[in-house]
Amino acid sequence: MAGNPPSATGVVFSSAKLPENEKKTEVTATVHAVTDSNESTPTPSIHDAEKGERTLEDDEKALARYLVPALEKGQKNARLKPPSLWIRFRVWYNPYRINFSVAFALNMIAIVVACTHRWGYAENHAAALALGNLTASVACRNEFFLRYFVYWPLVKVFQKWAPLWWRIFLTGFIQHIGGIHSGCAAGGIAWFFFLTIRTFQHRFANHTPAAVLAWGIITLIVVNVVMFAATPWIRAHHHNFFERHHRFAGWGAVVFVWIFVCIADSYNKETGQFHSNGNHLARTQEFWYAFFISVLIGIPWLTVRKVPVEITTPSPRVAVIKFQKGIQQGLLGRISRSATMEYHGFGIISEGIESNAHYIIAGVQGDWTRGLVSDPPKFLYTREMKFAGLPYLAHFFRRGIAICTGSGIGAVLSTTVQLDNWFLIWIGSDMEKSFGPERYILFDTKKEGRRPDTMKMLKDIYVSFKAEVVLITSNPAGNAELMQGCKENGMHAFGPLWDS
């Protein structure tokens, strides 16, 4: 931008206060201007990033005179050519798809082996293999299991001291554990197909009664409805259909699975009669898989509460929801107007567990969030059991950068407020109008009439701040662009997923 005069762009750190005049969080205030420099510093390697620690004060001083690079008016980004096919493939084929591929492929290989009649266990326990996969699938999306058996223990054991490559791997795996959820669910349904086909093939030899065949078909149909409702296209274009069918058909599938397990266990192939035996049923694998599925699904719903809320609407595009009690960094919450219908997950803003309040910023994206602005309720339903999200894994790293756009600030603000080793970059439009003048504004694109050179700024701060990782909270297009740029520049970055 040679020849362009510098102009004020806002602040990187500000003396921010939460709504309702809550206690201020003291952070360093710094004003920035546009730079005309195109020089960049090489991104450090993993080993370089782990050498010598400078203090945060040293780095804040180094960044105090940093000039925010801005693009020409009307220019959307500084990229001169699209990223390579390899970079785009690496961003697309993320650990989520890798986890899905591995989980589903292993199941399909096992089914192919079972079809050759060389695996006796699969012939006799296909239902256990199906339910085992469904148990793993439910666990990988369960708030209780993930928070207390995955996120918490791994962060406690490996935070900060472990090699950076291992912490990066763990972050990618945990964030994308939903791939195992999808892969095992699809694999479990494939095993149900195998079981149903085998049952029909052997129905005469085993004298299988119509009741067992019927419940097998009904169970198969219901679990397929659950899977169909969760496909990416349905979730993106018919979210209400997904919410209702994935949840209620899922609950129905659990009931049908219990009935199928009980009927199949009580049928005696030798006598051709039904003989109910609770002791025998309790010793079967199928019983315990069905039991754990039921427990995992039920635990979060036992924590649903109707709570009072205060909603302010600083603009027609956003609702700021205030709840009682403070929340630790990295947790997210689900809220709804109904006890059972249409729960939506949001990042939580809080100064810590000692605070007397926490907040959710809900940007208007559909009918439900629009209703929070046009018809703000006095009460909302929420689950007191909050679930851990990607920001929770910030504890893994010595230093990091959280970059977000618009209302994405809700997912990362607690991280930058509660952890002083995290640097915040916030980009949006009409931010003072939407959020007020003291909310960590970095670059107001509407006010400036231009966009920042985001990747240059991000790389400069990554090097100067000696960050180990970047957390991105943006829309799908912005997330993909930043992820591709980070890959090209050797920067470790993680962003949101459609299935997160």
TrEMBL record:
Membrane as UniProt keyword: yes
Region annotation (Disordered) ranges: 1-54
InterPro entries registered for this protein in UniProt: Adenylate-forming_domain
Keyword terms: Membrane, Transmembrane, Transmembrane helix
Taxonomic lineage: Eukaryota, Fungi, Dikarya, Basidiomycota, Agaricomycotina
Chain segments annotated as transmembrane: 98-119, 164-193, 213-236, 248-267, 287-304
Biased segments, Polar residues type: 35-44
Source species, domain of life: Eukaryota
Transmembrane helix found in the keyword field: yes
Protein name as it appears in the record: Non-ribosomal peptide synthetase
Organism: Phlebiopsis gigantea (strain 11061_1 CR5-6) (White-rot fungus)
